Amino acid sequence: MERMDVLKNYYTTHDEDARLVSKRGSVEFLTTIRYIEKYLKSGMRILEIGAGTGRYSHYFAQKDYTVDAVELMECNIDVFKRNTRPGENITIQQGDAVDLYNIESDKYDITLLLGPMYHLYNEEDKLSAISEAIRVTKRGGIVFSAYCNNDSTVYSFGFVRGGFKGGAYDHLIDFETFKLSSTPKEVFTLYRKEEIDSLMSHFNTQRLHYVGTDMITRFIGSTVDEMDDDTFALYMKYHFSICERADMVGASNHVLDVFRKR
After folding, report:
1. Residues 143, 205 contacting (CB under 8 angstroms)
2. Considering only CA atoms, which of 124, 202, 152, 175 is closest in space to residue 28?
């Protein structure tokens, strides 16, 4: 119940629909779309688990793909429905990523898990969400799973915003490794790559890409927002050149794990 109460409070007080619209927000969106479109072919069916207000689902439905969406929060479902345009072949139902009991196995070519891993706080739920995403995906299909990265929060919250001062969060911080822990109260669960690798070791999949979807954008967001179109295009070219570099991905605020179901 605590998880649901916290998420309801968060998503009814934050404009989730606007998050990916600004130039800085669009970096994550454009990067995720770029990687999904590497694997999309005509006639493929897409499932988005944790669809939020439908930014990705509607994008692909408007390109004539069949899209089914699952979302936990009623407030997001309401916006999702308002955003639906005539002619979209799209459905939305309420559901939880950890138990997609009413969705049949091996059904989808592309499965998007772009939000639920942000809000799962124990190992069992994390493994359940990944397992369910894999289960509903066809053999050979592609799953896209997004995570919030630990170390950008160390920089931005711990040092820039002073979160390491005062002791209020000391119980969630390992001051030797600077791994940050989360409870529902903190809303977002934070990951390092080795944790994602450990989760994925339980499944028979093939990793295709491990991508920083916004990279350094969080740290220069106002600069990105003020770029003219030519400069922003150049910035995106640079971003795409570094977003899979192993020496760079750890600085990203969001990461995307792309893998094939074997």
Report:
1. yes
2. 152
Which residues share a beta bridge with 49?
70, 113
Residue 21: pLDDT over 90? no
In order, the DSSP letters of 191-259 are E-HHHHHHHHTTS-EEEEEEEESSGGGGGGHHHHHT--HHHHHHHHHHHHHHTT-TTTGGG-SEEEEEE
Q: Is the pLDDT of residue 185 over 70?
A: yes
- CA 201 to CA 244: how far, in whole Å? 20
Overall pTM > 0.85: yes
Backbone angles phi, psi at 123, to 5 degrees: -60, -40
pLDDT bracket for residue 14 (50, 70, 90):
confident
For the chain, how many residues are written?
262
Residue 213's pLDDT is 98
Residue 228: C-alpha distances to residues 23, 32, 71 (Å): 10, 22, 35
Residue 262 has pLDDT above 90, yes or no: yes
Q: What six digits make up the tokens of 164? A: 């390491």
DSSP-assigned letter for residue 18? G
pLDDT given for residue 111 in this prediction: 98
Contact of 112 with 235, CB cutoff 8 Å? no
pLDDT score, position 19: 86
Give the residue ranges of DSSP H helices in the chain: 2-13, 23-37, 55-61, 74-83, 123-135, 150-153, 193-200, 221-225, 229-242
Q: For residue 170, what is the DSSP state?
A: G
Amino acid at 149: N
Query: Residue 65's pLDDT band (boundaries 50, 70, 90)?
Result: very high
